[in-house]
Specification:
Keywords: Signal. Helices cover 13% and strands 30% of the residues. By secondary structure, it is α/β, with parallel strands linked by helices. Strands 3, 11, 12, 13 and 14 form a five-stranded mixed β-sheet that branches. Strands 4-5-6-7 form a four-stranded mixed β-sheet, with no helix packed on it. The chain has a three-stranded parallel β-sheet with strand order 1-2-10.
């Protein structure tokens, strides 16, 4: 049943993307014309975007701007300038649920009809950006964060990243 729901969501995103190239999640429309992906950012929100938990990615196939939670060294990372940059200290990956299912296909592309990037969700737009989920003081308000959770802290006006142990904040 869960697979049918996930497939339905993916198909809906693909169909919606082919018409508008903008996606709103848990809301009726995106904020502004320059947004490719937007979340329902009500003041009581305590949910963030969960990065893929993985290890051993081949750098040859990656594109700059790829974000992951690396389970091998327990750090949140971004791929830029042909190398990995740490966004957190070593955290804790004990809560990460292992996904042993075989991946197939290229995933969902939003903002373009196709992409050379290989990911589950690829945002591909020259003139649009993603608005992260907004959470006020996540280290207090998110009761059970998942390793690799990322959001925008509206109180400190920073990028908040949970590494499995602590929240890391970036200005």
């Amino acid at each position: 049943m869960k697979n049918i729901k996930n497939i339905s969501i993916a198909v809906a995103l693909i169909i919606f993307n082919s018409f508008f190239a903008q996606v709103a999640i848990d809301k009726q429309s995106v904020d502004g014309n320059s947004t490719v992906l937007d979340f329902n950012n009500v003041s009581s929100n305590t949910k963030g975007l969960i990065l893929p938990a993985t290890s051993g990615l081949s750098t040859g196939a990656l594109v700059n701007g790829t974000f992951i939670f690396d389970v091998s060294d327990k750090k949140v990372k971004v791929y830029e300038n042909d190398g990995w940059k740490d966004l957190s200290d070593a955290g804790n990956s004990n809560a990460v649920l292992v996904n042993n299912s075989a991946e197939s296909g290229k995933g969902v592309v939003i903002g373009a009809s196709s992409s050379s990037a290989d990911g589950v969700l690829v945002l591909e737009a020259q003139d649009k950006a993603m608005i992260l989920p907004k959470v006020t003081i996540p280290h207090i308000n998110v009761k059970n964060p998942y390793p690799g959770m990322i959001c925008y802290d509206t109180a400190s006006k920073t990028l908040a990243i949970f590494d499995g142990s602590v929240w890391n904040y970036w200005k």
